[in-house]
Design brief:
The chain is of the alpha/beta class. The protein has helices at residues 16-27, 39-48, 94-122, 142-162, 180-189, 201-213, and strands at 7-11, 31-36, 53-56, 76-79, 125-129, 168-174, 222-225. It has a 7-stranded parallel beta sheet, sandwiched between helices. The protein is globular and about 50 Å long.
Length: 228
């Protein structure tokens, strides 16, 4: 079944869930704008995702999104970028805390603010790709979980603020998903990594697509996706 062409802005499209989502949107003929952290990375992403428009901003420096020239209208803004650094509170330094809060929380807030006029124009949807760590904080996960708990608060506040402007806000909480980030987590945990044990990124991308395509008579505020 055909659908009208939509326009999307994605972070985290360089790998994992974000890359799969970008490919799915491009394959169906939508316009896709992605963020790259540097001009060099922008060239790589443009080659990997033929047809995308690439904007340059480093989410580790949230102020870099302030000057982005986003499209005039956006059907969705999907925050799929994230970084993780595990460790006990007794050992995690300020740098590890700051890096995770900047990329996982402050940058999404700043980018959302920049994109809101375009989202309001199109009656668009903001999707925050959160984590099971945004619902429960386990040992060694304090900084990452704090950033994701904060992301949940951002989404909940934004949902109430923007409902009157026709902007929907959804949070997806994927359990462990077979992505490069998950491989890094296993490395930090000192465990063997088996991608087949975890959720496929395609499955989470399908859930996000459903949120983006949901008819305007409804919204799904929170979606949890767990390994079967």
């Amino acid at each position: 079944m055909s659908h009208p062409t939509m326009r999307h802005l994605l972070t985290g499209a360089g790998s994992g869930i974000g890359a799969v989502l970008a490919q799915r949107l491009l394959a169906r003929g939508d316009e896709v704008v992605v963020l790259a952290r540097s001009p060099e990375r922008a060239e790589e992403m443009a080659a990997d995702l033929p047809g995308v428009e690439v904007l340059v901003a480093d989410l580790a420096r949230p102020e870099s999104v302030e000057s982005l020239a986003v499209p005039d209208a956006l059907d969705s803004l999907v925050h799929a970028a994230g970084v993780v650094e595990l460790g006990p509170v007794s050992e995690l330094g300020v740098e590890a805390w700051t890096a995770q809060l900047q990329v996982n929380l402050v940058a999404p807030a700043a980018l959302t603010r920049v994109a809101l006029p375009a989202l309001r124009q199109a009656g668009g949807t903001v999707v925050f790709v959160n984590s099971g760590a945004g619902l429960h904080a386990h040992p060694q996960w304090s900084a990452y979980a704090a950033s994701k708990h904060g992301l949940r608060a951002l989404a909940d506040s934004l949902r109430g603020e923007e409902a009157g402007h026709g902007v929907r806000v959804s949070t997806v909480y994927p359990g462990r998903t077979a992505t490069p980030m998950q491989e890094k987590v296993h490395e930090q945990e000192g465990r063997a990594y088996d991608a087949a044990a975890w959720i496929r990124p395609e499955t989470v991308a399908d859930a996000i697509l459903h949120l983006v395509d949901l008819p305007h008579d409804a919204t799904m505020s929170d979606v949890t996706v767990r390994p079967a």
